[in-house]
Amino acid sequence: MNTLTILALSWQHILIVAILLVLLFGGKKIPELMRGVGSGIKEFKDAVKEEDKPGSEKKSSSTDNNSPSN
């Protein structure tokens, strides 16, 4: 139970981190960073969805089976 209290953040901690981020990166750079993070997450989700499709496995295995054995 004590380990969970170490990871708990209060609103003061979040405010301090937000102020430090604004000081380090500036007000204009933060939206660009968040936009990049968002597009990266979207690409990751799309890639996971493509791998989960059952048709994607059949396509790769059917091309291997059609190759000549000679």
UniProtKB/TrEMBL annotation:
<keyword id="KW-0811">Translocation</keyword>
<comment type="subunit">
    <text>Forms a complex with TatC.</text>
</comment>
<feature type="region of interest" description="Disordered">
    <location>
        <begin position="47"/>
        <end position="70"/>
    </location>
</feature>
<keyword id="KW-0472">Membrane</keyword>
<feature type="transmembrane region" description="Helical">
    <location>
        <begin position="6"/>
        <end position="25"/>
    </location>
</feature>
<dbReference type="Pfam" id="PF02416">
    <property type="entry name" value="TatA_B_E"/>
</dbReference>
<dbReference type="GO" id="GO:0008320">
    <property type="term" value="F:protein transmembrane transporter activity"/>
</dbReference>
<keyword id="KW-0813">Transport</keyword>
<protein>
    <recommendedName>
        <fullName>Sec-independent protein translocase protein TatA</fullName>
    </recommendedName>
</protein>
<dbReference type="InterPro" id="IPR003369">
    <property type="entry name" value="TatA/B/E"/>
</dbReference>
<keyword id="KW-1133">Transmembrane helix</keyword>
<dbReference type="GO" id="GO:0033281">
    <property type="term" value="C:TAT protein transport complex"/>
</dbReference>
<dbReference type="GO" id="GO:0043953">
    <property type="term" value="P:protein transport by the Tat complex"/>
</dbReference>
<comment type="function">
    <text>Part of the twin-arginine translocation (Tat) system that transports large folded proteins containing a characteristic twin-arginine motif in their signal peptide across membranes. TatA could form the protein-conducting channel of the Tat system.</text>
</comment>
<comment type="similarity">
    <text>Belongs to the TatA/E family.</text>
</comment>
<keyword id="KW-0812">Transmembrane</keyword>
<feature type="compositionally biased region" description="Basic and acidic residues">
    <location>
        <begin position="47"/>
        <end position="61"/>
    </location>
</feature>
<keyword id="KW-0653">Protein transport</keyword>
<dbReference type="InterPro" id="IPR006312">
    <property type="entry name" value="TatA/E"/>
</dbReference>
<keyword id="KW-1003">Cell membrane</keyword>
